[in-house]
Amino acid sequence: MPTPSSLVRSIITNTVPAISTTTAATANSTAIRRLGLIKRNLSSSSTANMTSTRKHRVTVIGSGNWGSAISKIVAENTQVHPNIFEPEVFMWVFEEHYKLPSDHPKYDASKHSSPQKLTTLINDLHENVKYLPSINLPNNVIATPDIKEAVREATILVFNVPHQFVGNICKQIEGSILPYARAVSCIKGVDVSADGISLFSDYIGKRLGIYCGALSGANIANEVAAEKFSETTVAYDPPGNLTPLPEELPPVDHSVMKNLFHRPYFHVRVVNDVAGVSLGGALKNIVALASGFVDGLGWGDNAKAAVMRVGLLEMQKFGKTFFKSCRSETFTEESCGVADLITSCNGGRNHRCAMLSVREGKSIEEIEAQVLNGQKLQGTSTAKEVNQFLKERGLEKEYPLFTGVHLILRGKAKVQDLPKLIEPEYSN
């Protein structure tokens, strides 16, 4: 590469003949300006080449079936893209003890005759034997019960926990995360407080002083983990006033988000509409409960389609009314919208528990404890919180399906009342 002084001589020689002192001085000044431009360009190229000197470290916060499935995806991709990511993926696990069934293929009586720490089982067997059994996790997934240690060096955080636990988790890790970390929320719910309603991506971002995007889609965890084809939507639209990443780290943009989550069996579309993606994942759970009630009664596909249509309209209306950045098209064009609604109303846990509660004549809380192995439904709490928000604003009648589901859950209406709850003016 030519030296700066030789560049100056070349520029002067090629552009200026031996003429007057004034003209030579002008030419020399021009050459110096050109040299400054060249040096800036060389510096920019050098900085760009430095972006691979450090790699992103990823931590997944949560280890239920969906948290474990996402950890599997992320850990596969950190190995596929070693120029962007450190290979190890920490997965924070709420520690508990679990006794491995004696019929498990890796059961060893000398180790597993008594309950073991779940983190020990995950790290030894490379399988979340309680929440995602029979699915092999990559060896680079490292389960840890120490949440502060898990997040300490992470530049990308993936939140995947029941939404009722988000506040306590953020409290635990405040002050332990990097100020330039970025995050993605896979949490399907909304945060309701006296101040109003907010997205969990916004809550996490404000609480921790970082930016948080969102991931949501037609993603039943067991199917994704089994590598059955599906797709999802990632919303990522950071503002320009964030604590900047160190120059040696790759920028966290749409390309990095796609590299982090996209797999041959798990296709990813990256968009900017964080509100639409978050709300689609939260509100569809209320509609899925209504769909489960209908299936529990055996009313058939026509009834379920009617519930889904009304539910989709209320989802769009809620998004556009309370979140000005929300795009109606997100609910109809992306996996996080109508696709997730279809899946959840046919095979998700909210649909299943609502259906069984009707068929078995039990409360949905009883069914939840019976079939979810310690995990929690999101639809019941979301229905309650959304109704609280609407009631305080006198808007319950504007969202008859959301309101009707809440009334059924509270025991103030019967499942058989759904048609007249949806359209009360035509029920007589």
Outline the structure in words.
The protein is built from 19 helices and twelve strands. The strands form three sheets. Strands 5-2-1-6-7-10-11-12 form an eight-stranded mixed beta sheet, sandwiched between helices. Helix 11 packs antiparallel against helix 12 and helix 11 runs parallel beside helix 14. It is globular. The protein starts with a helix and ends in a 6-residue tail after the last helix.
Summarize the structure.
Helix content is 51%, strand content 13%. The protein has 428 residues and is of the alpha/beta class. The strands form three sheets. It has an eight-stranded mixed β-sheet with strand order 5-2-1-6-7-10-11-12, sandwiched between helices.
Low-pLDDT parts are: 1-51
Strand order, largest beta sheet: 5-2-1-6-7-10-11-12
Strand content: 5-15%
Helix content bin: 40-55%
Number of helical runs?
Answer: 19
